[in-house]
């Protein structure tokens, strides 16, 4: 997730020619999975990472030829060998990685910038690339799950876009009765983590979560603590009574929250407000006995107490790691569920409003 946002930000913040590289297939094991992105800039800088460091230099060396030809291509790296002369320099990853290299032309740049804007508005997308003989991109589109798409696509669209969007699977699939393949990639807004409490022990959690790709919101009633000086990596800072903020905040099913004000009554107010919310993860800092007192008895199963994974953590940093690990674990377990409501089965329309024919695959 973090690489996606870094790449999209770099597209707007840098000048010169650019190459977008994407892992589209992994056979066996590898350092990164399908859908991982890296941007190569004309000055040689790279944004993102596709491997443990064994592929990036070779991809950068291929950049001038791809820019000169102006067409995309797929490069296959076999990392299974364990000798120092092979790809991976003897790391024995036991996998083969297919990397798609695309020059970022003006039209693609415009569409990727629109993707960034939609993600900022909390809108998930499905990205589909049509690959001729699994090698180069002939067409691509971005679908919003609400019967509208934009991109560069000639002819008929794949049937079942709603199903693809709901499943959010990233990977390659061959079209029936065709040599063409499609690569589908789920593009989702940053997962949001709301932290109630701006105490000293919240600082490492905010920092780690932001670096892991979360949109972090910190809320507290004390302006001396809840500010940019203490939390420079927070996406948003909300000053006010935590219970009122918890009640009024527009949470989604993909959001997570951690209650860590260290004030018993305020924690109770927050918990009461969160009882009616459907969140992906709700963690409560403190012992199980304290949490039981907060609820006046049994703790509902959807509240994680103590917050985080049981790894014997001690101190703010280790506790932050255990909490973040719990949030990530919860997100992975829920992956694959349809969090976007009922999807219409009507034919998708391009952004100009024209209906499109469909074909099965």
Rg, Cα atoms, Å? 23 Å
Question: How does the helix and strand content classify structurally?
Answer: alpha/beta
Q: What's the main sheet like?
A: 6 strands, mixed
Strand content: 25-35%
Distance between the termini: 28 Å
| Shape, principal axes of CA atoms | elongated
Helix content: 25-40%
Mean pLDDT: 86
Can you lay out the helices and strands and say which pair or pack?
Elements: H1 2-13, E1 18-28, E2 37-41, E3 46-48, H2 56-69, E4 73-78, E5 95-103, H3 106-120, E6 125-132, E7 136-143, E8 148-152, E9 157-158, H4 161-167, E10 171-174, E11 181-187, E12 192-196, H5 202-211, E13 215-220, E14 236-239, H6 242-248, E15 256-259, H7 264-274, E16 281-284, H8 288-295, E17 303-304, H9 315-334, E18 349-350, E19 358-359
Parallel strand pairs: 8-18, 9-19, 12-13, 12-15, 13-14, 15-16, 16-17
Antiparallel strand pairs: 1-2, 1-5, 2-3, 4-5, 6-7, 6-11, 7-8, 10-11
Helix pairs in contact: 1-3, 5-9, 6-7
């Amino acid at each position: 997730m973090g690489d996606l946002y870094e790449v999209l930000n770099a597209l707007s913040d840098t000048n010169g020619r650019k190459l977008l590289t994407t892992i589209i297939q992994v056979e066996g094991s590898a350092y990164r999975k399908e859908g991982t992105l890296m941007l190569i800039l004309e000055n040689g800088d790279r944004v993102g990472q596709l491997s443990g460091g064994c592929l990036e230099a070779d991809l950068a060396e291929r950049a001038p030829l791809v820019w000169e030809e102006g067409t995309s291509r797929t490069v296959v790296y076999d990392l299974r060998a364990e000798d120092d002369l092979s790809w991976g320099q003897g790391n024995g990853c036991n996998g083969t990685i297919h990397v798609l290299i695309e020059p970022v032309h003006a039209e693609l740049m415009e569409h990727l910038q629109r993707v960034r804007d939609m993600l900022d508005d909390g809108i998930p997308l499905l990205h589909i690339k049509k690959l001729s003989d699994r090698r180069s991109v002939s067409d691509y589109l971005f679908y919003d799950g609400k019967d509208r798409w934009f991109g560069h696509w000639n002819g008929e669209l794949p049937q079942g876009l709603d199903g693809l969007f709901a499943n959010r699977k990233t990977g390659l699939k061959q079209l029936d009765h065709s040599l063409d393949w499609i690569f589908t990639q789920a593009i989702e807004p940053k997962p949001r983590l709301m932290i109630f409490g701006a105490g000293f022990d919240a600082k490492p959690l905010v920092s780690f979560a932001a670096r892991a790709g979360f949109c972090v919101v910190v809320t507290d009633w004390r302006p001396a603590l809840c500010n940019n000086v203490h939390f420079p990596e927070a996406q948003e800072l909300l000053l006010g009574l935590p219970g009122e903020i918890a009640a009024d905040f527009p949470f989604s099913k993909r959001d997570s929250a951690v209650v860590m004000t260290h004030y018993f009554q305020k924690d109770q107010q927050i918990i009461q407000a969160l009882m009616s919310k459907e969140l992906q993860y709700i963690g409560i800092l403190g012992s199980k006995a304290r949490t039981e007192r907060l609820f006046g008895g049994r703790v509902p199963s959807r509240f994680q107490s103590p917050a985080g994974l049981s790894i014997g953590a001690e101190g703010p940093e280790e506790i932050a790691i255990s909490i973040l690990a719990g949030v990530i674990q919860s997100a992975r377990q829920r992956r694959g569920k349809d969090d976007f409501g009922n999807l219409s089965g009507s034919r998708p329309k391009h952004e100009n409003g024209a209906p499109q024919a469909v074909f099965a695959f």
